[in-house]
Automatic annotation (TrEMBL):
This is Cytohesin 4b. Residues 195-307 form the PH domain. GO terms for biological process: regulation of ARF protein signal transduction. GO terms for molecular function: guanyl-nucleotide exchange factor activity. CDD domains: PH_GRP1-like (cd01252), Sec7 (cd00171).
Amino acid sequence: YKLQILTLVAHIYQGVCYLVDNKLLEGTPHAVAEFLYKEEGLNKTAIGDFLGEREEKHLQILKAFVELHEFSDLNLVQALRQFLWSFRLPGEAQKIDRMMEAFATRYCECNADVFQSTDTCYILSFAIIMLNTSLHNPNVKDKTTQERFISMNRGINNGEDLPNELLTKLYDSIKSEPFKIPEDDGNDLTHTFFNPDREGWLLKLGGRVKTWKRRWFILTDNCLYYFEFTTDKEPRGIIPLENLCVKEIACPRKPYCLELYNPNSKGQKIKACKTDTDGRVVEGKHQSYMISASTAEERDDWIESIR
């Protein structure tokens, strides 16, 4: 359900706020960081943008996120490979700066004897990322040589040089294997909606003044998602079907209706959520859902699929 809620929003921040407000996720930096680190299917570009924000709570979550990584006995390139696979680096320089600073602090905590200061680790980490771009971006014609890489990093260890052997090893590692950058196409939440159990246009009764609205419904993973348009990436609402029943029902104004209801909690709201007009995620207010199909056959097919 946590992952499904995040399909509603373009920004992870709104989804995390909803999860915390509704007691679905602890609001501590560690709990939020662990969710972002371990939950499969989250958009890694969105994670990177979220972690790079400068507000204090984001900085605390970033610190907790980095501390979930174990860098002991890894060389700097190995540690960077692990770190840069857990999210996608944002494009904004200030965000990258904050994230690499947090990385350098954590790396030096795990490997206290490698560098004289975290600044050394921070500078060299940036140099390695730039080296990766230089060696593997086809648009860069002037490739950085090993000699130039060593020369560029002279004196960065509190005025002293790092061992040539260390820099050569890091250079060779990047030259032989570029960083693997997370790709979000097909690996993020939109993947949820591929190959659904059923999809189609239905009418849903809702709103403060009860009206029927046409919505595109997708049934997948025991959950109903509804969209305003078929091209929308984020749904307008989510109805988890756990503990719910479905039945044919006669509606006074619409034919071919079905009802979603919880047989064990009469009078209580169904656990569901939607986005309101300004994009915030809010809890659903339905005690049951009334949905109308265009034909009796279509209604029966939906009922069978939901069951």
